[in-house]
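User: Structure with S-adenosyl-L-homocysteine, tokens only please.
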Amino acid sequence: MDIPRIFNISESAHRIHNPFTSEKLAALGAALRLEPETRVLDLGSGSGEMLCTWARDYRISGTGIDMSQLFTEQARLRAEDLGVADRVEFIHGDAAGFVTDEKVGLAACVGATWIGGGIAGTIELLAQSLRAGGIILIGEPYWLKLPPTEDVAKGCLAGSISDFLILPELLASFGHLGYDVVEMVLADPDSWDRYEAAKWLTMRRWLDANPNDDFAKDVRAQLTSEPERYAAYTRQYLGWGVFALMAR
Ligand code: SAH
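Assistant:
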């Protein structure tokens, strides 16, 4: 069981697999005013940077589950490096339907809401692991401005314009699901560049090291087209943020 190989190559050097810098991740942790010993669940935990740094900085404990074997291994190594391996555990697996035995104070899905079939389903899934009064974290894209055509939406790698909302509508949609939005931290063009442009050097290095790999022509095609596609579409039209929610 694993995710498509292109991500395990292009994001192999990322600690954060989202348009957030380590500064923004730290700002989010501070904004949440986490109490020490808060239990955290993270569906689609990637390389574990959120759980590991928050365990170090705010003394939380937690569980992450991720479908990428590589990212999960990196998360375990990161926990060792930061001296928090006794506070966080990382499971390699499908997070769809995953519910904790013990309730958590913070239940997160940051940039992987397809795990619950969309935002509403993911909130419902996370809510099953959440103690009363706990916080749900959702990381999700939104339109900075509405794409003028479906082709522009596809250029942003969205299936269609209707895949995402503009920010005020996204915030309102959480209200319609019965949740207060109690905090948010948003990506910006510089933090987007850290996520997207970092893939290019990783892909180039991978190509130089693996010229005869069967997958090399796919990686080459991506590296050739991605900078221009990103600048023309994603960077112009797509926002991203993490939203903290509490049930009304
Ligand atoms: N939250 C992390 C990773 C976001 S990228 C971060 O912010 O760094 C999306 C992650 O979802 C990837 O790590 C990918 O491996 C994982 N993923 C995709 N489908 C999944 C599934 N069904 N179950 C668990 N993880 C999944």
